[in-house]
Amino acid sequence: MAKRKPNRFSAAKAVKANARERVGQPKAARVIEPKPRTGRAAKHKPKLEELIEKEQ
């Protein structure tokens, strides 16, 4: 069986691993629920003509 090649050194990964050892794991990110999409009509204000027609 062939010997495995060692991974290339990554300074960023080394710094992050060192920080995890000293400070601990970062808290999990809070998931923000997406707002329900209401459609194209809700995005625009009603026109003045439409408001007048609804009142009558």
Question: Which SSEs are present, and which pair or pack?
Answer:
Layout: H1 11-23, H2 48-55
- What's the N-to-C terminus distance? 86 Å
Helix content: 25-40%
Number of strands: 0
Shape summary: elongated
Proportion of strand residues: under 5%
Overall residue-averaged pLDDT value: 84
Low-confidence stretches: none
The DSSP helix count reads: 2
Q: Main sheet, how many strands, which sense, barrel?
A: none
Helix and strand pattern: HH
Rounded Rg: 28 Å
Which structural class best describes the helix and strand composition? mainly alpha
Which descriptors apply to this entry?
56 residues; mainly alpha; 2 helices; 38% helix; elongated
